[in-house]
């Protein structure tokens, strides 16, 4: 099971890439860096929280998980 810190770190590193892509797309559409940066930042903040919640929820769902044996030599 992943720790809360690991889930959070995964979410943040994933969003760094997303921030760059979203900001680039917003800049292409608006040609205004201030608006593009604001869109990219807002999008990333919302999605970090959503990803973290999604990751933690899936840790509670047993579908597709293989349970380790109770005892192993």
User: Hey, roughly how much beta strand do the residues contain?
Assistant: under 5%
How does the major sheet shape up? none
Cα-atom radius of gyration: 18 Å
Q: State the share of residues found in helices, binned by percent.
A: over 70%
Alpha plus pi helix count: 2
C-alpha end-to-end distance: 21 Å
Question: Which structural class do you get from the secondary structure elements?
Answer: mainly alpha
What number is the mean pLDDT?
A: 90
The sequence of SSEs as H and E is HH
The dominant shape is rod-shaped
Provide the low-confidence segments as ranges.
none
Tally of separate domains: 1
Number of E strands: 0
Summarize the helices and strands and which ones pair or pack.
Blueprint: H1 4-30, H2 33-60
Task: Write up what this structure looks like.
With 73 residues, the protein is mainly α. The protein has one domain. 75% of the residues lie in helices and 0% in strands. It has two helices and no strands.
Keywords:
single chain; 73 residues; mainly alpha
């Amino acid at each position: 099971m992943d720790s809360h810190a690991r889930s959070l770190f995964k979410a943040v590193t994933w969003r760094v890439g997303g921030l760059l892509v979203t900001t680039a797309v917003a800049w292409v559409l608006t040609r205004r860096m201030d608006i593009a940066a604001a869109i990219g930042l807002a999008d990333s903040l919302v999605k970090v929280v959503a990803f973290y919640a999604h990751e933690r929820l899936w840790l509670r769902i047993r579908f597709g998980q293989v349970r380790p044996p109770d005892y192993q030599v």
